Amino acid sequence: MTHAPRRIALVAHDNKKVELLTWAEFNLGTLREHELFATGTTGTMLEYELGLPVHRFLSGPLGGDQQIGAKIAEGLIDLLVFFWDPLEPQPHDPDVKALLRLAAVWNVPVASNLATADMIISSPLLAGDYVPARPEHDRPATGKAEFPRAA
Q: Where along the chain is substrate bound (predicted)?
């Protein structure tokens, strides 16, 4: 590996955990090259089933989604793979929306389903020197967010 590892957050709702586990197993070689973060149960599952080292946060409903959101805001997550269940109501839906909002605000790529996760994990940009633009929200208001490009 000639590039710095990406910091990838992995999250899955209960009905999507098996799908995420199957995806992670298929991409095990690639995922091993990166630093992984996950909410509680998902992280435990990835460690136990696949032997992947994972920085685990709390379970999503207990604050894990918010912990990952904080890392996104700090610039410490490069990719969010979040297999959420659009057909099942979630008691912590406001936390889920906040996490997805922060990923959008900070220009972090989000894979919310298998097809998108496959596209992102196989992209040459993942293994390259690509640095996504981060908006400068702390600048004086100009009416639009500034996106400096870093190489």
A: 13, 17, 39-42, 59-60, 92
Q: What is the pLDDT of residues 41-98, one digit of tens each?
A: 999 999 999 999 999 999 988 899 999 999 999 999 999 999 988 767 666 677 888 9
**Domain range enclosing 98:** 7-127
Catalytic residue flag (residue 14): no
Q: Which residues are annotated as a binding site?
A: 13, 17, 39-42, 59-60, 92
The catalytic position among 65, 93, 129, 138 is 65
Count how many domains the chain has: 1
Q: Which residues are annotated as a binding site for substrate?
A: 13, 17, 39-42, 59-60, 92
Among candidates 49, 79, 72, 61, which has minimal Cα distance to 13?
61
pLDDT, tens digit, for every residue of 86-102? 767 666 677 888 999 99
Q: Quote the radius of gyration of the chain (alpha carbons, Å).
A: 15
DSSP-assigned letters across all residues of 47-61: HHHH---EEE---GG
Q: Say if 79 falls within a structural domain.
A: yes
In a domain, 35, yes or no: yes
Beta bridge partners of 110: 80
Residue 15 covered by a domain: yes
84 is a domain residue:
yes
Reported pTM: 0.86
